[in-house]
Design brief:
The complex is a heterodimer of chains A (365) and B (359). With 365 residues, chain A is of the alpha/beta class. Chain A is 43% helix and 10% strand. Classes of the chains: A alpha/beta (365), B alpha/beta (359).
């Protein structure tokens, strides 16, 4: 186990320095897209155009973008309900993501999932999941699946699953059963704790033991672990890439305490009395987008002010287009969609009142 | 057959692509239920799993003690030797964990069979089996189904007390998105389990520890029993007796006793309760005018309640007596032998109910 500070020591050659500059610019664009997307999400929620529970990702952009940058396009990703960032980082269009929240037929789940249930089969995103920790045994199962594909069916390759969770999920039994199974069966899944310090309004110190060093939890299951500063996307890449590559090669599970921060409330209805404005401001000073932009503009000088401004304009326009798309898309028709996608094989007499059917094809498929 | 997970990298709509159901024969065209090849219920289950696992390498069996111990109830005896430890997988006592593992594995493209030593233990996996399994297709807008077969012992065993005697059928069949099969005999157990494994939807398959040693003829040749088709096991005009799972056997005992008094009834074994062959019940009630539903779960909001409701909705004008139900008594399952016997739906309760119905 290494500590949080080693890779970013001043002057040391960093792994991310070896990447083409377009890659880092791409990260900046992806993080900026998530930020802008979430700002528009909040506005739409406040205008009651988005319903239900809605958890925005602002502040945590580097965690999804940085970790997903370290794996292959075909590796499974599964996460919890704060999932818009993962969907966009994984390649879902802003249109499909926003339309889902608007409850439209053109959404990634045809309007049946909502904010907490972003699924994208072509991009191997196995969902946002609403019950805290419920996705963690599924993460073990996805890893079981590709390990089995590689070892038993001999049609696959060495894959690696990324399973995200919040620090609140640390206290769910599901995670501990999942980590035990992953350790026991040697399942290539990385449990990435997006540790934003609060499970809703309960600070991590009030919710879990060993909050100062969560790696102790992984150690109990024989799982390798690291801590990473989640507010610095280059740091995430530098540390997470070799960690993930090694686990993929050895087909072993991992655990990452990725320290991050959400600038907004837990959900859209959170008065945030459990923390101070000063605390939020302290993290905003370390904002991941500003840091990478500063690095590319002033240190690397691989991005000009003009290109940076243009990028921001393009992203604003991209999200504007997505909003318009979501607004103008058709609602799912209860006559065709309410009873569709309940059964793959919707035979008669499954229900006393419903006649199940196939609906329209999912727009992502 | 070569098996590839082709559906994984080629985005397909699981509702319309890549689903291959077996060919289902009419009941009269199925191989005979009578014959010399007498095996136990547990062997019929094992044959169903083994035949399907030979056919499709995506299928694996996971559960507590299924491999090295040969199964807590010896259902999977010998399967480790044939299929190896990668496909017959011992799990720790961790139902929520391995049920959830099955969800991920199924979404990835495998076809898990998960053995619960007892369905009573599935309660600690409720979030996975009720939230994720039956809702995944809907929540994902048709992108991912969740084809897992969960199977294990349901209902009272032998004096196991309140926590180990769960009948989960009423609780779980309430949830849309899953299918539920409850066989009453070795022949059906094999044919239904093979169908369950082939079905692209999640199937809750309820067995009974009390029946695993039951012996009957099971044919050598391969057969599949379709879901949603009841079997009429006895015929008569006096009353319709509807049941499923272990209590079907009590109904047959009751039939023998009633027949001695000249009361001959239709006995319908529903075999699956989701889908439910309500048409078979209605046709019988149109003949008999009377119905007794025998269900080993508790009466309040039970499968019997559902059958009675549907009979009232669909055959009200044919009823000559109000529908009756025989459930387990509405108390926690007791330990003492006599109390447990009194608690369960048994021959005496069924005979009394039928006599009440026929007046």
């Amino acid at each position: 186990m290494t500590t949080m500070t080693t890779a970013s020591a001043k002057g040391a050659k960093r792994l991310s320095d070896s990447l083409p500059s377009e890659v880092l610019v791409g990260w900046l664009r992806d993080m900026m897209l998530i930020r802008e997307f979430e700002l528009r999400t909040m506005a739409a929620y406040q205008q009651a155009r988005i319903g239900g529970f809605c958890h925005v990702y602002i502040g945590q952009e580097a965690t999804a973008v940085g970790t997903i940058a370290c794996v292959e396009a075909g590796d499974p990703v599964v996460t919890a309900y704060r999932d818009h960032g993962h969907a966009l980082a994984r390649g879902m269009s802003a249109e499909a993501c926003m339309a889902e929240m608007f409850g439209k037929l053109t959404g990634c789940a045809k309007g049946k999932g909502g904010s907490m249930h972003m699924f994208d089969r072509p991009n191997h995103l196995y969902g946002g999941h609403g019950i805290v920790g419920a996705q963690t045994p599924m993460g073990a199962g996805l890893a079981f699946g590709h390990r089995y594909e590689w070892e038993v069916l001999k049609t696959g390759k060495k894959r690696l699953t990324l399973c995200y969770l919040g620090d609140g999920a640390l206290n769910q039994g599901a995670l501990h059963e999942a980590m035990n199974l992953a350790g026991l069966y040697s399942l290539p899944v990385i449990y990435i704790v997006e540790n934003n310090g609060y499970s809703m309004g309960t600070s991590i110190e009030r919710g879990t033991t060993m909050a100062h060093d969560l790696r102790a939890k992984a150690a109990a299951y024989g799982i390798d672990s690291i801590q990473i500063d989640g507010m610095d996307v280059r740091e995430i890449y530098d540390r997470f890439k070799p960690f993930a590559d090694d686990l993929r090669e050895r087909q072993r599970p991992g655990f990452v305490d990725l320290k991050t921060y959400r600038y907004q409330g837990h959900s859209m209805s959170d008065p945030q009395k459990y923390r101070t404005k000063e605390e939020v401001a302290k993290y905003q000073e370390r904002d991941s987008i500003n840091r990478l932009a500063h690095h590319l503009l002033n240190e690397k000088k691989t991005l000009s002010e003009r290109d940076w401004e243009r990028m921001q304009e393009e992203i604003k326009e991209q999200v504007r287009v997505a909003m318009k798309f979501a607004e103008e898309s058709p609602d799912p028709d209860p006559a065709t969609e309410l009873f569709a996608d309940v059964y793959v094989n919707p035979q008669p007499n499954l229900s006393p009142t419903a006649e199940y059917r196939h609906g329209v094809k999912n727009p992502l498929m | 057959m070569t098996t590839t997970l082709s559906t994984i990298d080629t985005p397909l709509h699981p509702a319309v692509d890549g689903v291959s159901l077996p060919e289902f024969l009419a009941e009269e065209d199925l191989p005979s239920r009578e014959g010399p090849r007498v095996i136990q219920f547990r062997e019929a289950l094992r044959e169903a799993m083994s035949e399907e696992m030979r056919r499709d390498k995506r299928i694996f069996l996971m559960g507590e003690e299924v491999a090295q111990y040969s199964g807590a109830y010896k259902v999977s005896q010998g399967m480790l030797e044939e299929f190896g430890e990668k496909r017959i997988v011992d799990s720790p006592i961790s139902e929520n964990g391995f049920a959830g593992l099955a969800v991920g594995a199924a979404m990835y493209g495998l076809r898990p069979i998960i053995e619960f030593m007892s369905w009573s233990f599935s309660l600690v996996a409720a979030d996975q089996i009720l939230n994720n399994v039956p809702k995944m297709l809907y929540m994902s807008g048709g992108q991912w189904g969740c084809p897992v077969v969960f199977r294990g012992n349901d209902g009272a065993g032998g004096q196991l007390g309140s926590t180990h005697s769960w009948c989960v059928e009423a609780l779980y069949s309430n949830v849309p998105g899953l299918k539920m099969a409850i066989p009453s005999c070795p022949y059906d157990a094999k044919g239904l389990l093979k169908t369950a494994i082939r079905d692209p939807d999640p199937v809750f398959f309820l067995e009974s520890e009390r029946m695993l040693g039951d012996k009957a003829h099971v044919p050598e040749e391969e057969y599949y029993i379709p879901f949603g088709r009841a079997a009429r096991l006895r015929e008569g005009d006096a009353c319709t007796i509807v049941s499923f799972g272990r209590p079907v056997n009590f109904c047959l005992e009751a039939w023998d006793e009633l027949a001695k008094e000249g009361i001959e009834c239709d006995v319908l074994d529903m075999r699956t309760i989701r889908p439910l062959d309500i048409g078979a019940v209605v046709r019988s009630v149109q003949k008999t005018g009377r119905v007794v539903v025998v269900d080993q779960s508790w009466p309040f909001g039970s499968v019997a309640s559902e059958v009675v409701t549907q009979v009232c909705e669909k055959a009200f004008d044919w009823l000559d007596h109000q529908p009756l139900r025989v459930n387990s008594d509405d108390v926690p399952a007791p330990y003492a032998k006599g109390l447990e016997q009194a608690f369960l739906p048994h021959k005496g309760k069924i005979v009394a109910a039928v006599k009440r119905a026929v007046g």
